[in-house]
Amino acid sequence: MNQEIILKSRPKGKPTNSDFEINKIDEPQLKEGEVLLETQYISVDPYLRGRMRDEKSYIEAFKLNEPLSSALVVKVLESKNDSFKEGDYLTGMLPWKKRQVSKAKGLRKIDEGEVPLSAYLGILGMTGLTAYFGLTHIGEPKKGETIVVSGAAGAVGSTVGQIAKIKGLKTIGIAGSEEKIEMIKNKFGYDVGINYKSTETMSKAIKEAAPNGVDVYYDNVGGEVSDGVLVNINQFARIINCGAISLYNDTEIPTGPRVEPLLIKNSAKMQGFIVSNYEDEFGEGIKQLATWLKEGKLKFEETIVEGFENTPQAFIDLFDGKNKGKMIVKI
Ligand SMILES: NC(=O)c1ccc[n+]([C@@H]2O[C@H](COP(=O)([O-])OP(=O)(O)OC[C@H]3O[C@@H](n4cnc5c(N)ncnc54)[C@H](OP(=O)(O)O)[C@@H]3O)[C@@H](O)[C@H]2O)c1
């Protein structure tokens, strides 16, 4: 049975399963120039929450009663398109459907080989590139410096810590459970791990972990965790605003300590970015990440949820930290 997942209502606060609906749909009919695709893996990502709001942003909002979309790995079941053949695996932005036809614009072929196909949604996909470009281009890491990474056990954060280590930095990771702290230290080489859920005063914990101060802060979560890091920045610190998941479900913009004086007195730079800013350099980024993977300098973790119908729940679970590394749904 073919199925799609649509946005039924715009979530108020944290999304719930009732904001989504799974519908039975007709089998797609292949036309000249198209490929017939079967979904293998779906990427669920925190940024999709922003697309569920009816707001102008860097990417179009999802429409009510229409399928959601994200990065997928698909298999070509049949092809009437010269670029791809039956049996090829492709990745790209596609709607959440089990089977669909596409003109294949924006899709690229990937190989099942040294890494699993799902890795093209994580370490060799958007989150790997986000870690790489955010850190290298905005963070400008230098050997001997100290970096703090929030969301350190997630897809982006686990990669940032390892790249920072390759570049010779002291790495401090912040995550939400003891199990995650063990993982970021043992698997991803973080020098220090801080469990923000059991830490009473973040600013104090950061000060203890980084007695020489923080040179680079790669922020995936924002909010109170960041408040604790920012009071510990050094002169000429670089702050990378990659994500602010702690604020994504807020219905009003929260207030907190003012950061302007901290930035001024430290001549610090704070910059947000969207990974697609670096689209022209994606090829180079993937090549570098693949090389490090091959050399064993990069590792990755995935949380794979089984079943198309569990896609909304997998997305919701990101906000409860149920994933270690990249959250992916296997169909
Ligand atoms: N700028 C860009 O182009 C770009 C691209 C990709 C991703 N991002 C952003 O980067 C961040 C990480 O993305 P990802 O795909 O790698 O997701 P992820 O880190 O793999 O998953 C989300 C994690 O966020 C943590 N979290 C959830 N609620 C939190 C809260 N209230 N306070 C603190 N931590 C919380 C959870 O870990 P704990 O158990 O540790 O709480 C959860 O596992 C997100 O904010 C995302 O929007 C930005």
UniProtKB/TrEMBL annotation:
Cited Pfam families: ADH_N_2, ADH_zinc_N
Top-level taxon: Bacteria
Protein's UniProt keywords contain Oxidoreductase: yes
Keywords attached to this entry: Oxidoreductase
SUPFAM superfamilies found in the cross-reference section: GroES-like (SSF50129), NAD(P)-binding Rossmann-fold domains (SSF51735)
InterPro entries: ADH-like_C, ADH_N_2, ER, GroES-like_sf, MDR_fam, NAD(P)-bd_dom_sf
UniProt keyword Oxidoreductase present: yes
Domain named Enoyl reductase (ER): residues: 15-329
Gene3D superfamilies reported in the protein's UniProt record: Medium-chain alcohol dehydrogenases, catalytic domain, NAD(P)-binding Rossmann-like Domain
Protein name in UniProt: NADP-dependent oxidoreductase
Originating species: Mesonia profundi
Highest classification ranks of the organism: Bacteria, Pseudomonadati, Bacteroidota, Flavobacteriia, Flavobacteriales
